[in-house]
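As agreed, record copied across for absentees:
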Amino acid sequence: MRIATALFFVSIAVAASPAFGQTFEVKLAPSPKNRGACSSGDSELAVTFAIAISGDSASVTSRNGITTIYKKVRDGVYEGTFRNLTGTLVVAERSLRVEQRNAGCAWEGKAI
């Protein structure tokens, strides 16, 4: 009986976790701080991305079906890289920021 009770409480804790099993979409837009040269990335990055969070990882899928797996770096925050881009996903804010650091360009947005 104790094991069943313990498993019940663990399953409630996992289900109640704010990040576990969330899915949402984020529409990115160019950062207002971007320089003119950054606009070349707008066609690929200023779009809607599908986000799915599961435990210690999150998948971020672009409109053309490319999925990048983000890893949990601390509670509610995930990071990932794809080519020369680095992304940060903040679950509590339901926000995504993607940066091309070597060029000083960024795209950011919140859940729609």
Observations:
- The beta strands are 23-27, 29-30, 48-54, 57-61, 67-74, 77-82, 85-90, 95-100, 105-110.
- Confidence is low (pLDDT under 50) at residues 1-17.
- The domain at 19-110 is CATH 2.40.128 (Lipocalin).
- The radius of gyration is 17 Å.
